[in-house]
């Protein structure tokens, strides 16, 4: 695995990953998830629900990221106080 990472073009790998229909920012991914949740949706409804699911995902990830930064700051403060 590491040998492949050393020889591959990272820019090309990133572009391929971002173009994937399974990438987290892909509208197709979220429309597919919406259809899995409710197969009776028409195309427009599935797309709109997918967009709402995508937004909720990013909001949740942002909240988790903020919480992680807060915990890291608190841990660093405790370490500084102890040391």
Topology:
Blueprint: H1 2-7, H2 10-19, H3 27-37, H4 43-82
What is the H-and-E element order? HHHH
What fraction of residues sit in β-strands? under 5%
Assembly category: single chain
Query: Count of helical segments?
Result: 4
Return the average pLDDT rounded to an integer.
Answer: 90
Helical residues, percent: over 70%
| Shape summary | flat
| Tally of separate domains | 1
Gyration radius from CA atoms, angstroms: 20 Å
Question: What separation lies between the terminal Cα atoms?
Answer: 39 Å
Return residue spans where pLDDT drops below 50 for at least 5 consecutive residues: none
Sketch the major β-sheet. none
Return the structural class.
Answer: mainly alpha
The strand count comes to: 0
Brief characterization of the structure:
This protein is mostly helical. The protein has helices at 2-7, 10-19, 27-37, 43-82.
Keywords for this structure?
mainly alpha, 83 residues, flat, single chain
Describe the structure.
- The chain has 83 residues and is mostly helical.
- It has one domain.
- It contains four helices and no strands.
- The protein has helices spanning 2-7, 10-19, 27-37, 43-82.
- α3 packs across α4.
- The N and C termini lie far apart (39 Å).
- The mean pLDDT is 90.
């Amino acid at each position: 695995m590491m040998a492949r990472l050393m020889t591959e073009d990272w820019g090309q790998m990133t572009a391929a990953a971002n173009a994937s229909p399974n990438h987290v920012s892909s509208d197709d991914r979220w429309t597919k998830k919406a259809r899995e949740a409710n197969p009776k949706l028409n195309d427009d409804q599935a797309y709109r629900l997918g967009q709402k699911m995508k937004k909720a995902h990013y909001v949740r990830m942002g909240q988790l990221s903020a919480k992680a930064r807060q915990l890291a700051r608190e841990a660093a403060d405790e370490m500084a106080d102890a040391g």
